[in-house]
């Protein structure tokens, strides 16, 4: 405030809901105010309920992260892990279901670190919460994001036996090299990651797996990168959110020498992405002539006469159909696989 006297209010991600009060204070007192505290989950109580909901909705179940990866600012900006109470979450989802929502995406920076207690004091983990969501009428598809391999435990794999959990998992591995994972302070080894996916594929043999990758982390050698490419082949990733490493202020990685030349980082990123894109195209091609359950979400952006929705494995499908199908699960025969979407035609509504 001393450096910027023209600023009236400063608030953080956990005090966003206090903005109206801060605004009133600034208007009436002519004083500036700062609130960058981390009240636990008070924010969620303060948000107004949703009026009109889309067929697919996000519901925050926890915030923050206590993992402290060496490259990441999240624990410093969002605070450590805090979980909402299960009753609050379930009531919010029931309310959304009453408004026509059919798919819920349970959201958090580190969603499988969810820990809470029910009214009688029993401890609940993410798998317990998902089991509660399974029983909510009207909610027929559940997703969760983002997970950490360390807490991707057997109980979470078990809940995949319920077909309401979408056949898609985003589980960020970041690198296929144990040496780099250690420098990243990810606290697991590649073997752990592979073991989790192998166990999951016993329950869901054709599940689609996506991951985040960072290429060109300080000290990443050609051999480290080749190990990442090998992991991509071994797992058969379907999607990636991959980035070139760049230092973030106030992280321990920022103190390491950023020694991989930009040109090399770029080449590695292109190689990684083209490998994963090829695999994704292969998976899309295999879907041609199959029937896919699609939640119809809206009119297609490119053609208002068409509808669009997502398959279980998170692919957008465009097809002809009446607007009355929006909000319904529809079986679509896939007729064409494009780079970023599919085309199909309606078989039947559920
Ligand atoms: S990368 Fe993910 S797990 Fe690691 S500190 Fe950041 S939010 Fe947490």
Describe what this molecule looks like in 3D.
The chain has 3 domains: 1-37, no CATH class; 50-286, tm_1862 like domain (pyruvate-formate lyase- activating enzyme, Alpha-Beta Horseshoe); 291-349, Nucleic acid-binding proteins (OB fold (Dihydrolipoamide Acetyltransferase, E2P)), CATH 2.40.50.140. 31% of the residues lie in helices and 24% in strands. The chain contains 10 helices and 17 strands. The protein has helices at 19-29, 42-46, 74-78, 86-98, 126-134, 154-158, 178-184, 190-203, 222-235, 262-287; strands at 9-11, 33-35, 56-60, 62-63, 82-83, 103-107, 115-117, 123-125, 141-145, 168-170, 208-215, 239-244, 291-299, 306-310, 316-320, 329-337, 342-349. A hairpin with a 5-residue loop joins β7 and β8. α9 packs parallel to α10. The N and C termini lie far apart (58 Å). The mean pLDDT is 92. Bound molecules: iron/sulfur cluster. Iron/sulfur cluster (SF4) is lined by residues 65, 67-69, 72, 74-75, 109-110, 148.
């Amino acid at each position: 405030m001393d450096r910027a006297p023209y600023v009236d209010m400063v608030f953080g991600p956990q005090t966003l809901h206090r903005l109206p009060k801060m605004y009133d204070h600034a208007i009436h007192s002519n004083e500036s105010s700062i609130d960058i505290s981390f009240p636990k989950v008070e924010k969620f109580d303060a948000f107004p309920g949703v009026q009109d909901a889309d067929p697919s909705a996000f519901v925050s179940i926890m915030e923050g992260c206590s993992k402290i990866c060496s490259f990441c600012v999240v624990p410093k900006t969002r605070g450590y892990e805090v979980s909402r109470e299960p009753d609050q979450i379930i009531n919010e989802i029931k309310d959304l279901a009453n408004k026509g929502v059919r798919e819920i995406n349970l959201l958090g920076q580190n969603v499988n670190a969810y820990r809470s207690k029910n009214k009688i004091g029993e401890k609940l983990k993410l798998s317990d919460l998902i089991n509660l969501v399974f029983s909510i009428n009207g909610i027929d598809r559940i997703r969760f994001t983002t997970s950490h391999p360390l807490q991707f435990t057997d109980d979470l794999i078990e809940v995949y036996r319920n077909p309401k959990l979408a056949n898609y998992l985003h589980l960020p591995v970041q690198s296929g090299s144990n040496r780099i994972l250690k420098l990243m302070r990810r606290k697991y080894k590649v073997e752990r990651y592979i073991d989790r996916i192998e166990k999951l594929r016993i329950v869901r043999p054709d599940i689609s797996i996506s991951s985040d990758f960072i290429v060109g982390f300080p000290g990443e050698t050609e051999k480290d990168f080749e190990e990442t490419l090998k992991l991509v082949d071994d797992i058969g990733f379907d999607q990636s959110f991959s980035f070139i490493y760049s230092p973030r202020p106030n992280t321990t990685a920022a103190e390491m020498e950023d020694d991989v030349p930009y040109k090399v980082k770029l080449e590695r990123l292109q190689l990684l992405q083209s490998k994963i894109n090829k695999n994704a195209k292969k998976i899309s091609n295999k879907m041609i002539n199959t029937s896919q359950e699609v939640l119809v979400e809206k009119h297609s952006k490119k053609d208002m006469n068409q509808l669009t929705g997502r398959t279980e494995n998170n692919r957008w499908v465009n097809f002809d159909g009446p607007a009355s199908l929006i909000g319904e699960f529809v079986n679509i025969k896939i007729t064409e696989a494009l780079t970023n979407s599919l085309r199909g035609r309606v078989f039947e509504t559920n």
